[in-house]
Amino acid sequence: MLEKIKEVLSKITKASVVDEALVRDIVKDIQRVMISSDMNIQLVQKLSNDIKKQAIDETLPPGVSRKEHLIKLIYDELVKIIGKETYVPRMEKHAILLVGLYGSGKTTTAGKLAKFYMKRGMSVCLISTDTWRPAAFEQLRQVGEGVKVPVFGNPEEKNAIKILKEGLKQAKAYDIVIVDSAGRDSLNDDLIDEIRVISKELNPAEKFLVISADIGQTAFKQADEFNKAVGLTGVIATKADSSGKAGGALSACYAAHVPVAFIGTGEKAEDFEVFDAEKFVSRLLGFADIGSLVSKMKEAVEESEFDPEDLMKGDYNLKTFYKQLEAT
Asked: Of 18, 88, 140, 306, which is most buried with the most CB atoms under 10 A?
């Protein structure tokens, strides 16, 4: 979604004049991109109205051109609908409960989360309480083996609470205990009841819903229903780097009042990071890799006033951002 919006921003920089007609044209382009990316219609309409009102009615800040002002408005509104606050991971001893439906990437995410905390000096273990899916314990065991963390569970036991209690006895010495719960094809009463009992027994500091970013605005229903059922503390979105519906999914979670805590950005255990809305928007607008960005800017120097050394000096501001867009 946001890659296409970069094309819209380039359209602004190439315009000879920014007037009300261009603003309305740009807003229509943004609407088309967002709707095609499965974003909520009401949210799209609100964002469109906010951009139009501010772009047309607001007095320009000193030293800022109307083009720069319009680009900044669009950037700010995108960050706002995805979630402004950045999650701060707990670095004290605690338990984490992962919930989600089949196909969300929950078990793989358990391994990535374990790796995240291990890299920060924490001791981590995994517990499998999934008694519904065949070979669930074996799959988690393989994930744990891949990131070098122990996995507790009992594939012969069919009572999830018994498995959890036994696992917690074995997990006492660990800083971070990550519990992988059972999934279902849909959120039903059996799943809710089981998760509630597990949550009560575990008393986790974090309860994360794992979703795949490619479900788009369907994420709203999942986040809302799981939140009402067990009181989520956050969402972990997988496939956030590859899905054209990622913007729709992330904004849907924010609309459901469940913040996105982490995102998966690839298949490797290391492809996992704390979600930062500003960084996410910047990356998808084309500012992910500093090295390649500087190289790209050097090539554009003859066509632009932008000095790539500004970035290395820490002088990367709105004007720098605008000039780089103008040069592409």
From this structure: 140
Tokens read off for 229: 């059922």
pLDDT in tens, 111-136: 999 999 999 999 999 999 999 888 99
Which residues of the chain form CATH 3.40.50.300?
94-280
Residue listed under structure tokens 């790796």? 115
CATH 3.40.50.2300 fits 94-280, yes or no: no
The pLDDT of residue 312 is above 60: no
Show Cβ contacts of residue 121 under 8 Å, excluding neighbours closer than 6 positions. Answer: none
180 by Cβ neighbours in 10 Å (0-12 / 13-18 / 19+) ranks as: buried
Measuring CA to CA, which residue among 215, 225, 252 is closest to residue 41? Answer: 252
Rounded CA separation 286/293 (Å): 8
Beta partners for 128? 180
Give the angle subtended at the CA of 207 by the CAs of 203 and 212, to the nearest 5°.
155
User: What phi, psi does 171 have (nearest 5°)?
Assistant: -95, 5
